[in-house]
Amino acid sequence: MEKKVCVILIAIIIGFLYPRAAEAIFTLELNLTTVSFDNMNSGPAGSYRDDVPPQGLEVVCASDQGNVWSLLIRNDLPLTNTANPASAIPDENFKWYGVSTSDPTNATLVTIREDFSVEKTVYAGAAAETNTTLMMKFELTVPPLMQSGEYTSNIVFTLTE
After folding, report:
1. 56: left (phi over 0), alpha (psi -120 to 50) or beta
2. What single DSSP character describes residue 61?
3. Please, which residues have CB within 8 angstroms of residue 156's CB and are 6 or more apart in sequence?
4. pLDDT digits (tens, 9 = 90+) for 129-140
5. Cα 147 to the center of its chain, rounded Å
6. Model pTM?
7. Buried/exposed 74-105: b ≥16 CB within 10 Å, e otherwise
8. Residue 80 to residue 116: CA distance in whole angstroms
9. Domains of the chain as residue ranges with CATH
10. What distance in Å separates the CA atoms of residue 53 and residue 12, rounded to the nearest whole number?
11. Which residues pair with 159 in a beta bridge?
């Protein structure tokens, strides 16, 4: 019985001498996994839709590291017809923009419409920002005479320090 007590005491002492490191917080969360433009026309004049999704895409960035951080956005490929991958809507016709941020003192949120031609910074968080919520929306212009069908792409957000 005494041996068991000694082993337990040694384990407790070792636990105090070598505490576990605290887990760092560095997360990115989205309130939606899909953004849909629903049905759009592709006639001779093309078609345009803005303010999608109507409620906005909520992006929550959290970090407790005390470092400056950035949120970047890109799409992995142009909006492509699922039945005919040769038919794609150019990146210049698919745009994103920031609507609001939970930190009104930080003016780095990109609010002008930017296309998906290259990866871009959406927002630069200050070192003191630990939990920031951004609202984003999207715009799409379907070029004239596009093949009808379902078009998909993956939007990729990257949170970096």
Report:
1. left
2. E
3. 73, 74, 75, 76
4. 889 999 999 999
5. 29
6. 0.81
7. bbeebbbbeeeeebbbebebbbbbbeebebee
8. 13
9. 24-160 (2.60.40)
10. 54
11. 71
